[in-house]
Design brief:
single chain, 162 residues, alpha+beta, Immunoglobulin-like, 4 helices, disordered N terminus
Length: 162
């Protein structure tokens, strides 16, 4: 009898049962923006194209729960995250921000460190999951800046196009 009770309790704790919050399928669409970076004056069409959101396809993003657990998910070709999450609040970060690196992968020494600390704290958005619904609130756009306009890049390290 005692072993049977232990088995039932163990099953309840190890199972995503209704008592402990069943995971819910969540789909979130992520986009990025890329400004015009050419040297010539852009046409109106070029400027309009730069303003359009593009799918953030095949990139790893980091999801951090309000309880501190961390997971990574790769976006699909449409820029979507498809995962299962328990009810709660989750912050979504670009990989470079979460791992405290730089937007272009170059040395942190080329950047203003205090400015980077601010950038690292900026999540892309927040996923909210309840028993019945899920939603996504974008808090910061993902932007693929021009090489000379990267956030926090020191002036003496900027590459200017010819």
């Amino acid at each position: 009898m005692f072993l049977k009770i232990i088995f039932i309790i163990s099953t309840l704790f190890n199972n995503n049962s209704i008592f402990f919050g069943q995971k819910k399928a969540v789909t979130v669409k992520l986009n990025y923006y890329q400004p015009y970076c050419g040297g010539a004056r852009p046409s109106r069409d070029m400027e309009a194209e730069a303003q359009k959101p593009k799918p953030y396809a095949n990139y790893m993003v980091i999801i951090v729960s309000d309880k501190g657990s961390v997971d990574s998910v790769k976006t699909n070709i449409e820029g979507e995250i498809k995962t299962k999450l328990k009810p709660g609040t989750y912050k979504v970060f670009e990989k470079w921000r979460y791992y405290k690196s730089t937007p272009d992968g170059n040395a942190v020494a080329n950047y203003d460190k205090e400015c980077l600390k601010t950038e690292w704290g900026k999540e892309t958005g927040v996923i909210t999951v309840t028993k019945k619904t899920s939603g996504f609130t974008e808090t910061n756009n993902i932007v693929f800046d021009c090489a000379w306009k990267l956030p926090c890049l020191r002036e003496d390290k900027k590459f200017m196009p010819e």
